[in-house]
């Protein structure tokens, strides 16, 4: 099982557009084979910090997701609404 976090610091005034754009990514990603969960969270201290937390069956599912039409189309749109590059971390279950 693989977990992914993708943290974004959203530009001032772009939060609602980011969330609206992210909705399609979340919905389509949840429907992908190998997806266990896919959610967008806001930081409790700063609502302009938004983080996707995803869970995938295996690396093959992650690879298919990264190559999907919706991912390839939506991620550049979201990146244009952030202060800096989206910070992505991948985790593998240990215990």
Write structural notes for this entry.
The model has no long low-confidence stretch (mean pLDDT 98). A 4-stranded antiparallel β-sheet has the order 2-3-1-4. It contains 3 helices and 4 strands, in the order E-H-E-E-H-H-E. The chain is globular and about 35 Å long. It has one domain (2-92): Alpha-Beta Plaits. The chain has helices spanning 15-30, 59-66, 69-79; strands at 2-9, 35-42, 49-56, 87-92. It is 37% helix and 32% strand. It is α+β, with helices and mostly antiparallel strands. Helix 1 runs antiparallel to helix 3 (69-79). The protein starts with a strand and ends with a strand. Strand 2 and strand 3 form a beta hairpin.
Keywords:
single chain, 95 residues, alpha+beta, Alpha-Beta Plaits, 3 helices, Antibiotic biosynthesis monooxygenase, ABM_dom, monooxygenase activity, Dimeric_a/b-barrel
Oligomer: single chain
Task: Estimate what percentage of residues fall within beta strands.
Answer: 25-35%
The first-level CATH class name: Alpha Beta
Q: Based on Cα principal axes, name the global outline.
A: globular
Radius of gyration: 13 Å
Structural class: alpha+beta
Organism: Akkermansia muciniphila
InterPro entries: ABM_dom, AI-2_Isomerase_LsrG, Dimeric_a/b-barrel
Domain ABM: 2-94
Keywords: Monooxygenase, Oxidoreductase
């Amino acid at each position: 099982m693989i977990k992914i976090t993708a943290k974004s610091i959203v530009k001032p005034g772009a939060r609602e557009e980011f969330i609206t754009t992210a909705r399609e990514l979340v919905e389509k990603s949840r429907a992908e084979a190998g997806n266990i969960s896919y959610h967008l969270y806001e930081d409790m201290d700063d609502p302009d910090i938004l983080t996707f937390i995803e869970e995938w069956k295996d690396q093959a599912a992650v690879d298919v997701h990264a190559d999907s039409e919706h991912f390839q189309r939506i991620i550049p749109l979201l990146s244009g609404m952030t202060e800096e590059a989206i910070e992505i971390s991948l985790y593998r279950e240990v215990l």
